[in-house]
UniProtKB/TrEMBL annotation:
Gene3D superfamilies: 2.40.30.170, 2.40.420.20, 2.40.50.100, Helix hairpin bin
Bias (Polar residues): 1-10
GO cellular component terms attached to this protein's record: efflux pump complex
Record-level Gene Ontology MF annotations: efflux transmembrane transporter activity
Compositionally biased intervals (Basic and acidic residues): 508-519
Region feature (Disordered): 1-21, 508-527
SUPFAM superfamilies recorded: HlyD-like secretion proteins
UniProt name for this protein: Efflux RND transporter periplasmic adaptor subunit
Keyword annotations: Coiled coil, Membrane, Transmembrane, Transmembrane helix
Keyword Membrane: yes
Coiled coil start-end: 180-309
Transmembrane segments: 32-52
Species in which this protein is naturally found: Aeoliella straminimaris
Amino acid sequence: MSQDPSQLDLSQLAVDRTPATPSRPRVRRAWLTRYVLPVAILCGFAALFGWATRDSFLPAQPVTITPVVVSRAEVKQEGTPLFQAAGWVEPRPTPVLASSLAPGVIEELLVVEGDLVKKGQPVATLIDADARIALAEAKSLHALQKAELRRAEAILAAAKTNLEQPVVLQATLADSEALLAELERELNNLPYAIEAAKTKRELAEVNVRRKEQAGDAILGRILREARADLATAENTLQELIAREPTLKQQQQSLRQKRDAVAAQLQLLTEEKRALAEAEANLSIVEARVDQARLAVDTAELRLERMTVRAPINGCVLSLEARPGQWLSGVGASAPAGASAVVGLYDPKSLQVRVDVRLEDVPQVLIDQPTQIETAALAGPIAGRVISVTTQADIQKNTLQVKVAVLDPPAVIKPEMLAKVTFLAPPSPAVEGQEAKRPLRLFVPRTLVTSADGGDTVWIADLTAGVAIRRPIEVGRGVAEGGLVEVLSGLSPTDKLIVGGRESLSEGERVRVAGEERDAAGSMRSFPVSIESAQRTAQLADKAS
């Protein structure tokens, strides 16, 4: 059915041609898309390019690196034989020498090889004639010094008595006072004696005059006697007159002497000096007595040392000297071995010195169980690793390991050849779990720096491009190729700095110039008797 054309609405077909007015938000979006977004993209590309090429602009120390050597360890069951090595039996830790402590000539050997001896048992005697004479001389000198000591003690006692009771000075002072008193008495009587002498002279003069006046009435002899008496009286008078100054001078001297003796009695200087000298002399004599006593002790010790005695309980291993041989004794100037008489060892303390190949050394641990076989025994005996020597044999390409013989039988003797089987020690792995193959990390020994703070290595942080000094804990011993095991401080992905590390500082930027593979390598596998590096560290600590 057709519709009426007059009823059609054609206004819907009309086009509105009025220009539209632009809005402000559309103008802003156009500015962002035309300018801001391209500039941001360019800046991002520039920043990315700068970050990618930063190593070309920033200074960096060129270094060479090497990876950590990673080894895969295979866990062995406890008691599993690992390897065998040959060796020989010897005393542990060494033979013991019975040496002469004094010089002399051996008179007699009292033991032979293989004899069992007790500690202190005589094993040899030396000629002791000189030692006995020296002892007798020392004893006589000691007796002489003791007599000197008694005399010094007596002198000291007398000096003390003189100091406490100075009777000699007191007697001297009394004598001086008595002489002075007598002289003063004589001096006091001198005037009377002079008067008496004058009177006698006067009487003699009168007598002479009378006899002269008598003339021939008296004999000449009588006159001469009278004149002689006069002369005698005159001389006596003159003598008394002249004696007074002398007596006064003597009086003064006696007074000075009395005062000096009194002062000496008060000070007692000489007595104190004598006491000090007596005490010093006593000390000297006592020291000489001590020296003489020490000389006696030395002579007795030397005589006692003429008998060489065993220092331990053990068995005679070897005779180091023979009768008639001169021994120099123990001293700084004595040559080594010049005093040895007998070599001893303890039969209950033996060890086997084993030559272990260098490729088997990493499997050797302290306290590791072993089995020892010798031709003298029908079956093996138990042993235990006690030490690993530090110097290898360049000709045999071996390293010596010492294995203690546990409870050795009497048939085992030093120098016997033995074969030692090294067994796997107890493993910490739990039964029923699948055996793991733990990783062991090794680094070249030359890259480890040892200081007071411990061992460190230089690590290249490739992400940050810097050098880091990393503290590590290394195991005991050196593996094949100069490698040491790192117990802690490293991971398998770390890169060690080899070249250029001498002038590095912590956090300094580095640039990898190359990689060395000589000291490192890919994953290796060799059988060992541990499950992890922790087990190795525990055994090493126990050994130390």
